[in-house]
Amino acid sequence: MSSKTYQIAALAGDGIGPEVIREALSVLRAVGQKFHIQFNITEAPVGWAGIDAAGKALPDDTLDLCRRSDSILFGSVGLPDRDPTIPKDQRPERAALLRIRKEFGLFANLRPVQLPKALAHACPLRPERQGDGIDILVVRELTGGMYFGQPKKTEDLRNGQQRAIDTMVYTTSEIERIAHVGFKAAQLRRKKLTSIDKANVLENGILWREVVSRVGKGYADVALDHMFVDNAAMQLMLRPTQFDVLLCENMFGDILSDEAAALAGSLGMLPSASLGATTANQTFGFFEPAGGTAPDIAGKDLANPIAQILSVALMLRYSFGLNTAADAIDKAVGKVIDAGLRTGDIHSPSDTSARRIGTREMGAAIVAAL
Ligand code: NAD
Questions:
Q1: Structural domain of 165
Q2: With CB atoms 3.0 to 4.6 Å apart as the test, which of 17, 206, 322, 323 could cross-link to 13 if both were Cys?
Q3: Residue 1: band (very low, low, confident or very high) from pLDDT cuts 50, 70, 90
Q4: CA-to-CA distance for 116 and 26, rounded, in angstroms?
């Protein structure tokens, strides 16, 4: 299918990271064999595993490996019970995650939320609101807006009060590049994009709407509509099936992606992609489950590996454009769910046709379904 060898850095991290990455790599190898694609996978420590191996949450060798790679497949990092005396900026969540985001200019976050019909019980919405299943992609701008705008400070006022200031800033080019990501993603899906803003109140919202509309003219096959963020929050609960791609600035995307995630019922089902620059038809990306290290279930063969496995599919689709291989993984996961196999987080004791299994068996079943 492709003569290229894709260089992949696999950073398992802490907690359930090594267990779910192991299954995801089996799936990646299987898909490579099936479609004759060469993947060169190199594993390296990160998080507490990095601190234990090399004294740093993101060891220099691990960072070098990432720089030499086409994409990063990441588990998760952080163990709340480990050494509370270590300074915040050296803790894995900051020293590894934020550093990688910055180093590789990851400006677009993609969070797909899929609720297959077979998992309707895991969704907090009534079945009639779930239609034939929920399938939404939240595209969130990751490096601009209120979280990074300057000035950002808390100052003392003469009257004894304090005043906190955050600044929402977007430039045309920042909006344009995330809009292109959103429209391209919509082209790979049901070709509908809903752009989220607060154009009735915010200057940023007005500019966002203007720029997204202009970029949209170059994507005649994608239907574009605009929605105020407050209405979008409500519509996600009332009629989530109306959405395909939701395009959001940083803070709105942060909030709406978590709201949308709740619809899928378990963190164990949710992958995530953070994308950087595109060169020669390839996009550098960072692919991870939406959840964390789940210390409560780590090492017990209880973790759901599907989020990590679906993040492999995201890597193939959004970094390398290997859509057929990505589809095959999505389909294999669907097959296994339809066959009634469930890890604990998605298992309902009242569903007598389903069988509860562990991390390894779930991974093996998905490889077999491929
Ligand atoms: P968490 O996501 O690790 O766990 C929350 C709940 O979801 C737990 O009950 C857990 O068992 C469950 N869960 C998560 N993933 C699952 C899976 N694949 N299968 C089955 N159940 C799953 O969140 P937390 O407990 O708040 O955080 C634990 C640690 O993870 C913290 O140190 C936190 O900072 C870190 N964290 C890291 C990342 C990351 O690396 N990107 C993201 C979130 C949290």
A1: 124-264
A2: 17
A3: low
A4: 23
The answer to whether residues 167 and 104 belong to one domain is no
Tell me if 275 sits within 8 A of 282, measured CB to CB.
no
Q: What's the mean per-residue pLDDT of the chain?
A: 95
Q: Is the pLDDT of residue 30 over 80?
A: yes
DSSP states of 207-263 as a string? Answer: HHHHHHHHHHTT-TTSEEEEEEHHHHHHHHHH-GGG-SEEEE-HHHHHHHHHHHHHT
Let me know how long the chain is.
370
pLDDT (tens digit, 9 = 90+) per residue, 297-344? 999 999 999 999 999 999 999 999 999 999 999 999 999 999 999 999
- Nearest by Cα to 173 from 193, 197, 151, 143: 143
When pLDDT is cut at 50, 70 and 90, the band that residue 351 belongs to is confident
Ligand 1 atom index nearest CA of 96: 40
Residue of the CA atom closest to atom 4 of ligand 1: 294
Do 248 and 202 lie in one domain? The reply is yes
Residue 118 banded pLDDT, cuts 50, 70, 90: confident
How do 282-289 and 71-76 pair as beta strands? parallel
For ligand 1, atom 27: residue with the closest CA = 292
Substitution site in 257, 297, 362, 366 for ligand 1 pocket (most atoms within 8 Å of beta carbon): 297
Alpha carbon distance 55, 67 (integer Å): 20
